[in-house]
Amino acid sequence: MINKERLIRLTRQLIRINSENPPGDERSIAAFVAKELRRAGYSPGIFRYSPRRDNCSALLKGAGGKFCCLLSPHLDTVPAGNGWSLDPFSGIIRAGRIYGRGATDCKGNLAVALEVMISLKEDGAPLQGDWMFLATADEETGSGRGLLPWLEKNRRKPDFAVILDSDEGHVIIAQKGLIHFKVEVGGRKAHGAYPERGVNAIDGALVLIKELKTLKFKAPSHTLLNPPTINIGTIHGGDKVNMVADWCEFEADLRFVPGMEAREILAAIRAAWKKTGIAFHLRAQDIQQPYEISRTHPLVRCLLKAGEETGMEPRVKGSEGATVITFFKNKGIPAVATGWGAKGCAHATDEYVRVHDLLAGARQLERFVRIFDKKMSSFV
Q1: Which end of the chain has fewer beta carbons closer than 10 Å to its terminal beta carbon, N or C?
Q2: Are both 147 and 187 inside the same structural domain?
Q3: SS3 for 301?
Q4: Alpha-carbon gap, residue 353 to 341, rounded angstroms
Q5: Are residues 134 and 23 in the same domain?
């Protein structure tokens, strides 16, 4: 049975452990998670693919071993930053809210997963499938020290995955892909008083950015996702105010919908820019494919059913941002994302999570485990 007081304690204690990324050091929080699992009777494992970047796993083995389902939150948070009205590592409770960096993203969800694993163990739940818990490092900067190498190197792959990194109990069944790319623009130096003698790379970059912003992509409409978006995240250029800049570079974040191909998008950008006559070099830094799973998949139906049975009103939704569910696509593993954070609080100052939502989430997730286990065991 879900224990409310323990769930609150776990959330507050997790928030008090600084796991900001960057700089990235999940050793303390992974040790805490392992200690709680060990106390409940598990034999957790701590492993790393890079110094200081610890991950933690545990297995609740079913009687039949007919399938394996992964439950996976992450351990790291974005930096707290400045401007907080309270200590971002306090875990203080005010008016039914627990405050602190990571409360919504993702330590509240981590606490829910821990509480469910502990509760299932205490209850001696008669499960047939194997249920794998994996709390990962480095989610906030690409998962290169956590989930990605785990998917490549772990001997046993799950048959299904539920990623606990969302809010309001909704079930994420579609998400946009992303392309992060860097553009370098060259020019020719000259004295700032005689700009006509040089070629200003910053001016050239601005022309390219304008072209990029007005470029029309062939994008299919999607019922759960908005059209593609482009954001210029950084721009740097020039050496001194009284010099014509001979260099400029900027980075862009492009989000695209299922049905579009990253290589075709990049080809369209290059083709449009070549017409300007401006010399540039475009380098893709990160590409993640869009993801979609059927509304009728058992993962989706069982999560919705569990929410309804525990008094929630979950809906299927699309994600404009990237969760790690896309990484399971290449492995052929059906995956969805859900979670119980407060909408709009992820990465925000004075981040919080509602106690009521955590409790509802723990009950929903535990109920899902039982429903899905029964359903899949009858199929396999």
Answers
A1: N
A2: no
A3: helix
A4: 6
A5: yes
- Residue 50: pLDDT above 90? yes
Among 71, 65, 164, 113, smallest CA distance to 376 is for 65
- Single-letter amino acid, residue 260: M
Q: Are residues 161 and 301 in the same domain?
A: yes
The 3-state DSSP class for residue 142 equals coil
Residues 105 and 228 in one domain: no
Residues 248 and 105 in one domain: no
66: left (phi over 0), alpha (psi -120 to 50) or beta: alpha
Domain that holds residue 254: 177-288
Q: Which of 288, 320, 337 is the last residue of a domain?
A: 288
> What is the rounded distance in angstroms from the CA atom of residue 292 to the CA atom of residue 175?
7
Domain count, the chain: 2
Phi/psi zone of residue 92: left (φ > 0), alpha (ψ -120 to 50 degrees), beta?
beta
Q: Kindly indicate the confidence band of residue 330, based on its pLDDT and cuts at 50, 70 and 90.
A: confident
Largest CA distance in the chain: 80
What pLDDT is recorded for position 65? 84
